[in-house]
């Protein structure tokens, strides 16, 4: 599958997601409402930590609350939680039909998920950034770095969606991916920097984080927004490497799983 | 309290719903948040009937005619807008839980069984719920399982059962507490011919052996013809007919429909010669639909006569759809009124 | 009513047993999920420890005091969640029409739904919370007597009551719309998140919502102030402790009333 058809597929899925969300207007508003509350809770709690200190882990109070706003805003764009459908398909036996389709499964899936993410940029990320700005929880990045931030978000969404796919691919062997999902969710909550900026971690935990893919999802783009101390191109390069590596891993697991299904029956 | 002669008594029953009008567009949606405009729909309109113990009543109508609404009022799920309803001599809505102990309900295409548990466990839980003594529960369960041939599926999770198997489990579940009144809402919907027949045979036997009062809604005339002694027909909320099945049959003849696919275009060549009691209902392209009265011309004889005249690709024998019967009752009523 | 409760208790017990049997049949997945859920909540606690490597206190509360708040929030949310798992598939029940079956049972609808489905695994969060409360109490070296323990128990009961009420209200919302009930997450999961820290650090409007409208904050903060012997800048302390059960009970009553309103709507309009 070439880039053009991935893009077409993404566009088609974005439209479906948009239509669905417009039908479920109440659901959409209630999601935004809930997101706002979480944004306020985290921002006020972390700001309270700066009562007697100027900086924690190299971040000042403004950077920290900006970190909270940006990470909350892009939570749905770069999701840590979500159903891809492979697990259900394996359990119901539908997977046999999916496997027979003449399209590349992984890139096809990614295309669709990018569409959903694109929708959430408009429906969730931008409104939440606005809310954060109004509440005084947002410092804008230098204008020149915005394009880098956007590229980083795209790469992060890519990685996040492949991780979700990898979780469900485990159902080829385990029957249910539910356990793995929870395990990954536990680690990604901490190591994506959602609960706490990774800058606040002790050195040993930051080292562990370096070797996990999770900080490439929410943390890296957010860090770029608040001004990363490192070379931006280096950060993007690391993200790209992870994205390619995980995608290849998904391809390998998918084909192994396909053999499993074809040999043992769905 | 003395038991009333009738198990169900409905008088001047009326049920109205408010249907909200959805406005289009963003402006409409915002206005919808503040003011709600809608119209009132009468789902059931001035319906009266009574059911005596031991009756087997069919309640017929097209989809949306008001069947399910009536049923839901009888079991106490919905409140009536006006009119009086008595089930076991009590207001079914106010005494919903008391009546529940004496009523068994099956809603077709929905399940009361616990999806992830085997039926045997669902039965056990329902036994607890209905306060059935353990010995009684076991005896009744075994009898029902035996009659419905469920022995093999008792320990299989419900989600793995076929629709037919599940419906038989639903029947068992609804009868465990030996209800005096059994209400079945579309019990054969979605079932194949064999499964339908199994359900019908079981219900016939249940009625014959126990004398249980049965109320059955269906839009399948086969259910009604083969099971019920009395039929109520409802359309657009109004009761059109209340009488025995024979009187209904007089109205629609029990005419049937034969659909034939011909090799050649139906309009080509000589016109088809048809016997008495048979007429062309519809004809288009290769397909022709004949309506016939089996008393005047039996189906095999009709098919033989057509075969002599034309080359046939396929045949299908159908019951007349319920909408048709309802239409006919309308016409008949009007003719009587004229 | 007493008879109903007896039947309900037996159904609930039977459901619990059936659920345990069912979960044992998928043992591998069950263990994985339990470990996973413990990891989710466990790592939240780890994050708290990371934070307190940089600071001494937050809004005047020390590390172990905040761990206590976190543990209480987890216990109450976890048990509230575990008690109300029967409501999880309310949208599905309403959408498919199977809720009609709930209404033809000889038991109040609320009790039947409550006992319809019992999932044990959600207790994981409370176990985690209990662990956090235990270690914090040990580190704080409090001079506690029986009255303190009674207050602790009351605090848990009130917290569970408020969260359970929220889950019931969230399910009752399905009588109006079967769309996602994410809105209530702001108060349930959001409430637990918020009360992980002393409510005094939030701005007045936000604090008021969680103290007086959805009293998740009230039942967490007020007993904690009394139990840990904190000074209370909000002035809720002495009278608030006695009011806590009243607040929790009133809120549960409001949630049940909301459920009744929903039921009336369902009975009037039908599916």
UniProtKB/TrEMBL annotation, chain B:
Pfam families: ABC_tran. Keywords: ATP-binding, Nucleotide-binding, Transport. SUPFAM superfamilies: P-loop containing nucleoside triphosphate hydrolases (SSF52540). This is ATP-binding cassette domain-containing protein. GO terms for molecular function: ATP binding; ATP hydrolysis activity. Residues 8-261 form the ABC transporter domain. It comes from the Bacteria. InterPro entries: AAA+_ATPase, ABC_transporter-like_ATP-bd, ABC_transporter_ATP-binding, P-loop_NTPase.
From TrEMBL, chain C:
It holds the Pfam family ABC2_membrane_6. The keyword Transmembrane helix applies. InterPro entries: ABC-2_transporter-like (IPR010390). The keyword Transmembrane applies. Keywords: Membrane, Transmembrane, Transmembrane helix. The chain crosses the membrane at residues 34-55, 67-87, 148-169, 209-227, 239-259. This is ABC-2 family transporter protein. It comes from Eiseniibacteriota bacterium. The lineage of its organism: Bacteria, Candidatus Eiseniibacteriota.
């Amino acid at each position: 599958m070439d880039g053009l058809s991935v893009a077409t597929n993404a566009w088609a899925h974005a439209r479906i997601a948009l239509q669905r969300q417009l039908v479920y207007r109440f659901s959409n508003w209630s999601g935004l409402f809930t997101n706002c509350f979480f944004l306020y809770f985290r921002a006020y709690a972390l700001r309270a930590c700066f009562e007697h200190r100027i900086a924690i882990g190299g971040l000042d109070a403004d950077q920290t609350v900006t970190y909270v706003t940006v990470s909350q805003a892009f939570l749905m764009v770069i999701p840590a939680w979500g159903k891809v459908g492979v697990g259900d398909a394996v359990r119901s036996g539908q997977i046999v039909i999916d496997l027979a389709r003449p399209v590349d499964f992984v890139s096809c899936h990614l295309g669709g998920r990018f569409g959903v993410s694109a929708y959430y940029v408009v429906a969730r990320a931008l409104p939440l950034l606005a809310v954060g700005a109004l509440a005084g929880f947002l410092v804008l990045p230098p204008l020149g770095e915005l394009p880098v931030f956007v590229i980083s978000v795209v790469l992060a969404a890519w990685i996040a969606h492949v991780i979700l796919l990898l979780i469900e691919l485990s159902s080829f062997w385990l029957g249910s991916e539910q356990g793995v999902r929870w395990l990954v969710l536990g680690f990604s909550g901490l190591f994506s920097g959602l609960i706490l900026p990774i800058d606040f971690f002790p050195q040993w935990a930051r080292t562990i984080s370096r070797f996990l893919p999770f900080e490439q999802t929410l943390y890296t783009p957010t860090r770029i927004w608040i001004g990363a101390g490192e070379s931006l191109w280096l950060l993007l390069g690391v993200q790209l490497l992870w994205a390619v590596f995980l995608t290849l891993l998904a391809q390998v697991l998918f084909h192994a799983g396909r053999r499993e299904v074809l040999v043992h029956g769905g | 309290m003395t038991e009333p002669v009738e198990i169900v008594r409905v008088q001047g029953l009326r049920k109205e719903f408010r249907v909200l009008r959805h406005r289009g567009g963003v402006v409409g949606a915002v206005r919808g948040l503040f003011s709600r405009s809608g119209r009132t729909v009468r789902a059931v309109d001035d319906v009266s009937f009574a059911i005596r113990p031991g009756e087997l009543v069919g309640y017929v109508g097209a989809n949306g005619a008001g069947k399910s609404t009536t049923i839901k009022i009888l079991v106490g799920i919905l409140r009536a807008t006006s009119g009086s309803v008595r089930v076991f001599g009590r207001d079914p809505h106010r005494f919903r839980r008391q009546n529940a102990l004496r009523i068994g309900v099956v809603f077709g295409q929905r399940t009361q069984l616990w999806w992830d548990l085997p039926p045997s466990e669902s039965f056990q839980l329902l036994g607890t719920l209905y306060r059935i003594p353990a010995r009684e529960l076991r005896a009744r369960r075994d009898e029902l399982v035996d009659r419905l041939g469920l022995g093999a599926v008792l320990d299989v999770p419900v989600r793995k059962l076929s629709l037919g198997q599940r419906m038989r489990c639903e029947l068992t579940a609804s009868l465990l507490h030996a209800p005096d009144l059994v209400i079945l809402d579309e019990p054969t919907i979605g079932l194949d011919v064999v499964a339908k027949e199994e359900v019908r045979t079981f219900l016939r036997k249940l009625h014959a052996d126990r004398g249980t009062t049965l109320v059955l809604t269906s839009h399948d005339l086969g259910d009604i013809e083969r099971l019920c002694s009395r039929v109520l027909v409802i359309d657009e909320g109004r009761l059109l007919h209340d009488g025995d099945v024979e009187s209904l049959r007089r109205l629609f003849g029990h005419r049937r429909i034969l659909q034939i696919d011909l090799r050649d275009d139906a309009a080509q060549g000589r016109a088809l010669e048809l016997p008495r009691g048979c007429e062309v209902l519809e004809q288009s392209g290769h397909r022709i639909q004949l309506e016939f009265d089996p008393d005047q011309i039996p189906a095999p004889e009709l098919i033989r006569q057509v075969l002599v005249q034309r080359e046939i690709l396929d045949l299908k024998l159908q019951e007349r759809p319920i909408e048709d019967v309802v239409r006919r009752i309308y016409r008949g009523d009007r003719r009587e009124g004229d | 009513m007493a008879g109903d409760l007896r039947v309900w208790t037996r159904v609930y017990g039977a459901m619990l047993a059936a659920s345990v049997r069912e979960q044992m049949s998928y043992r591998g997945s069950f263990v994985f999920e339990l470990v996973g859920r413990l990891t989710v909540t466990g790592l939240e606690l780890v994050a708290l420890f990371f934070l307190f490597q940089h600071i001494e206190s937050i809004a005047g509360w020390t590390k172990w005091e905040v761990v206590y708040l976190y543990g209480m929030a987890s216990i109450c949310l976890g048990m509230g969640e575990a008690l109300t798992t029967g409501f999880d598939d309310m949208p599905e029940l309403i959408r498919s029409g199977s809720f009609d079956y709930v209404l033809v049972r000889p038991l109040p609808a609320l009790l039947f739904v409550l006992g319809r489905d019992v999932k044990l695994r959600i207790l994981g969060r409370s176990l985690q919370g209990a662990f956090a409360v235990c270690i914090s109490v040990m580190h704080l070296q409090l001079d506690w007597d029986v009255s303190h323990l009674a207050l602790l128990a009351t605090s848990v009961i009130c917290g569970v009551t408020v969260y359970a009420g929220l889950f019931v209200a969230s399910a009752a919302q399905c009588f109006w719309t079967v769309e996602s009930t994410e809105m209530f997450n702001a108060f349930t999961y959001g409430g637990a998140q918020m009360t992980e820290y002393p409510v005094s650090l939030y701005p007045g409007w936000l604090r008021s919502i969680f103290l007086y409208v959805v009293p998740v904050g009230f039942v967490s903060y007020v007993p904690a102030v009394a139990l840990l012997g904190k000074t209370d800048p909000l002035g809720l302390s002495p009278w608030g402790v006695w009011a806590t059960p009243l607040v929790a009970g009133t809120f549960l009553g409001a949630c049940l009333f909301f459920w009744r309103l929903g039921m009336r709507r369902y009975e009037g309009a039908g599916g």
